[in-house]
Amino acid sequence: MSTYTSILAITRSSTTGRVAGNRKLAHLSQEGESAKVRRIKEILKEGERPWIKVIAADLTEEQALLVESTMLWKLGKTLTNKTSGVFASKFRSHNTLHKELPGFDFDYGIYLVNVGEGPHRCWADSRNYGFLAAGQGRKFSVQLEGLQAGDVVVAYLKKHGYVGVGVVEKPATRVRDFRWRGKSLPKFELKQPNIYEHSDDVDKSEYLVTVVWKKKVDVESAKWRHKCGLFTTRLVCASLANQTKTLRFIESEFGMRFKDLIKE
Fold first, then answer.
1. Spatial CA neighbour of 17 closest among 76, 65, 87
2. Which of 108, 38, 97 is nearest to 73 (CA)?
C-alpha cells in the first residue's frame, strides 16, 4: 500500500493537498489555469517559494483524504481548492454552528410527509388513528421506509397546508399488520375503508408508519401562508433539515419547538 501524506502549503495564501511518497513538491510543477496553479506561479514569479508543511505522515489513502477534507472545511474560502474533499458530505455546512442539525447534533430527522388524500386514505383517519400512509405501488410506499422511530414528521395536505406534527413510533408496515391500540383498523369506523384494498399484495398494499401526534388540526385549520416560500414537494416524504423558514413557520403556527420533540 502506498504511503500518503496530507500537506498544507502556506505563504501569503493557502492551499492543501495530499501526495504519495515524497512527492510533496508536486504542486510546484503543475500546469494549467486553476486558481491553485495561478497562485503558486505568482509566488514563484516574485522570487519566493510557497511554504510546504507536512500536517500528517504515514497515512493510508482514506486517512489522508479525511485529513484533507477536515483542513478544507476548517480553512474554507482561504484556499484555492475547487472541491471540498472526498468526505465533504460528512461535514456540516459552514456558518451553521449556531444551528442544531440532524445527523450532527442529534440522530433523528425532520421530514415532510404528504398525506395524499384520495380513494385509499384521508387525513381524518391518519389523525384519529395515529399513522401516515402511502401505497398502491412500491414507488410510493418505499419512500416511507426511510422513516425510523424517533424521526419527526410534518403532515402536509395538498392545497391546504400543514395539518400535523408528530414523532414516528414504529417504521412502515403493511396495512394488514398495522395496529392502533392493539386493534386492526377494520375494528374502527374509518372514513376511508378502501385503505385495505390490495392489502394482500406486497407491491400494491398501503404501508403505514405509526405516529404519535403532538400537534394536529382538521383540514379547515391547516397552517399555510401564500407566497412566502414555504416548502412543499411532490414526493411522499422529504427532509426539512435545510428548510429553516418552513420549520420556523410550523413552530410558530403549532406553538411548539422541533428541538423539544427530537430530544424526547
1. 65
2. 97
Partners of 53 in the beta sheet? Answer: 8
Q: Are 153 and 132 in contact (CB under 8 A)?
A: yes
18 or 218, greater pLDDT: 218
> Which cell numbers in the block locate residue 123?
387525513
Q: What value does the CA radius of gyration of the chain take, rounded to a whole number of Å?
A: 26
Alpha helices in 46-137 (DSSP H): 61-75, 123-129
What does the buried/exposed string (b/e) look like for 66-93 if buried means 16 or more CB atoms within 10 Å of the residue's CB? bbbbbbbbeeeeebbbeebbebeeeeee
96 or 235: whose pLDDT is higher?
235
* pLDDT tens figures, 105-144: 666 789 999 999 999 999 999 999 999 999 999 999 999 9
pTM (two decimals): 0.65
Write down the residue that cell numbers 385495505 correspond to.
196
**CB neighbours of residue 158 within 10 Å:** 11
In angstroms, the CA 170 to CA 208 distance is: 9
Angle at 207 between CA 129 and CA 230, to 5 degrees: 75
**For residues 188-201, average pLDDT:** 94
Instruction: Tell me the C-alpha to C-alpha distance, in Å, between residue 227 and each of 21, 178, 244.
Output: 57, 38, 16
Which amino acid is present at 205? Answer: S
SS3 for 119? coil
Give the torsion through C-alpha atoms of 149, 150, 154, 157, to 10 deg: 10
